Amino acid sequence: MGPFVPDIISANLNYIVALLIGICFGVILEQAGFSSSRKLVGLFYGYDFTVLKVFFTAGIVAMVGVMGLTHFGLLDINLVYINPTFVWSAIIGGIIMGAGFIIGGFCPGTSVCAAAIGKIDAMIFILGALVGVLIFAEGYPLFEPLYKAAYLGNPRIFETLNISQNLFAFLMVSAALIAFYIATLIESKVNKREVVFFKLNRENVLIILSGALLLIFSLWFTDRKADLLNLVSDDNFVKNYPIDEMTPDEFAFRLVCENCERMQIVDFRDKKEYDMWSLPRSIHFTIDNFFEKEPSLLLKSKGTIKVFVANKEITERKAAIIALRLGYKYIKILKGGLEEFNKEILQFEPIAKPQNIDEINLNRFRLQVKDEINRLIKENKPKAPVEKKPKRALGGC
Amino acid sequence: MKNKNKTWREVQNMNETKYMNPYLAGFLLGLLLLATIYITGRGLGASGAFKSFIVATVQAIAPSHASNAKFYLEYLNEHPGTSPLMNWLVFEIIGVLIGAFFSGVASNRLNLKLEKGPNATRNARLIGAFLGGLLWGIGSQFGRGCTSGAALTGMAVMSTGGILTMIFIFAGAYAFAYFFRKLWL
Asked: Per residue in B134-155, pLDDT tens?
């Protein structure tokens, strides 16, 4: 599961990665024509919409791509840098940059690109940008209140608008495609070329097909977590879903058995309850943990049976269904939940007058494991390996 | 000054075949951004490198000022340990320089020249470039990123702040376009 920094790619290797990515970035920008200020500002006078086409194509491709990687469980979005939202700073900064775009003819990335091929205006632009940063740095006490005003955290746009991720992506892709079409018409008109509404050629067919594909993907790549939570919200479905169960007696036996194959107890109760008492060698887990890179590794160990426990069996079932749907194997649940386990084992009252050999055996077994397990619980210090707050990548400016 | 006083149409006709198809370039840029997010957990950027450069310069020239003024302190707080130049975006921008240079060589666009609108004077263009850069330097600090770091990457990860900044960069440029048309048309 991505991202690979910092665990697979070290901090130092990451610099090499940065250099290589930068080289690709530079080649693409230069080949697209972004080393020309007249081409860049063409967007704002209608004579050249290259910027619009390149920028929004890149934006929607990456956006739908991120949704796809998350949908298929290849990327933990919780570890990806999401630009923070400071409302006023974002708006005022945007307007200032917009003015800079028209006056300077570049943005920072394109200016570096243009300077690299010898554009003098770009070199002067870079000089100006450095002075600009210095002005901000020196005037920081003055700018700081505005810079830090109206902080909303790191919300994502569909959360802010309170719509589904897919709807936003679909609207964004649609808007981009419509804008491309209109831009092409305007471009022809401004440059006094013949305005052609549609021409059937290979290039246009390819563009339309790609656009249609992006629209389909934008609806297809749903948020897995929301999907699965929705799936387990139907209690009847959850009750009838085939899941391997473990009886309280077998569970108790395995808890005290030293030579049995190991089982991993995964506890889905509240953190508070878990901290009060927990079963030996159990780990605390939440539904959210399934979708996070580091915690999800805990469930990957091959061969070990994972027994999901919670107070009620229905909670265990929901968690197990999500785990099974995510492709985890060897998942079992404790039949009847911990409530049943408490009643039948931990607080077992022996049958007063055992009628047959089975009841005698039951009495003997349960009394024996009851004491043993209660002792183990007392000795067990809860550990919560998933508590560690995963560190988001540091990005932005 | 080959392009002096040529209309955009003429310039474009000269270059049309030389540049990559914009949708193809956009698609490749999108894939690159996606790969960057997938591998490193962060997006592309540019203005951050400028900031690192300024912090490093001030540290070298006026170390006592850098260890007193709040802006630099906050920067060092956010990027502890190493020199400001040991920064992901600094390496990325060096890459951009190298990549763009070789792209320019390959497409025969390497040429020391000043590009300007047909009716703009040389000085107007130089002053414009400097002032425009200056505004970007300030604006990208407020926006916490520029077209790449805030707008493009923000759009890819659907950050509210990034998309907000993106909208106002383009809106701002359109709003001011009329007043600076002499520079470009």
From this structure: 999 999 999 999 999 999 999 9
Calculate mean pLDDT across residues B74-98.
91
Check pLDDT > 60 for residue B30: yes
Rounded Cα distance, A177 and A73, in Å? 28
Please spell the DSSP secondary structure of A114-125, one letter per residue. HHHTTBHHHHHH
Within 8 A of A138 by CB-CB distance, chain B residues are: 69, 71
Contacts of residue A89, defined as CB under 8 A and 6 or more positions apart, other chains included, come to A146, A147, A148, A149, A150, B142, B143, B144
Token reading at A92: 């005022």
- Please confirm whether the linkage preceding A6 is cis (ω < 30° from 0): yes
Task: Decide: residue A209, CB within 10 A, 0-12 exposed, 13-18 middle, 19+ buried.
Answer: exposed
> How big is the CA angle at A232 (ends A227 and A237), to the nearest 5 degrees?
125
Locate all alpha helices (DSSP H) within B62-159, ordered by sequence: 63-66, 70-78, 88-106, 122-142, 153-156
Angle subtended by helix axes A357-379 and A248-256, to nearest 10: 50
Provide the pLDDT for residue B81.
Answer: 73
Contact residues, chain B, for A32 at CB < 8 Å: 19-20, 22, 25-26, 29
User: Across residues A40-64, what is the average pLDDT?
Assistant: 96
Q: What is the DSSP letter of A300?
A: -
Beta-carbon contacts below 8 Å between A and B: 573
Name the residue of chain A whose CA is nearest to B58's CA. Answer: A134
Helix (H, G, I), strand (E, B) or coil at B21: coil
Reported as a single tens digit per residue, the pLDDT across A207-256 is: 999 999 999 999 999 988 888 998 999 999 999 999 999 999 999 999 88
Contact predicate B36/B42, CB 8 Å: yes
Which tokens is A159 given? 């959360």
Answer positive or negative: Cα dihedral of A37, A40, A45, A49: positive
A256 burial (CB, 10 Å; 0-12 / 13-18 / 19+) is middle
Distance CA A76, CA A254 (A): 34
With a pLDDT cut of 90, the percent of chain B lying above it is 85
Would you call B159 helix, strand, or coil by DSSP? strand
What's the CA gap between A24 and A6, in Å, rounded?
Answer: 22
Q: Which residue has the higher pLDDT, A388 or A3?
A: A3
**Nearest-Cα residue of chain A relative to residue B114:** A120
Helices A50-71 and B22-40 meet at what angle, rounded to 10? 40
Q: How confident is the model at residue A355 (pLDDT cuts 50, 70, 90)?
A: confident
pLDDT tens readout for residues A269-325: 998 888 888 888 888 999 888 888 877 777 877 778 899 999 999 999 999 999 998
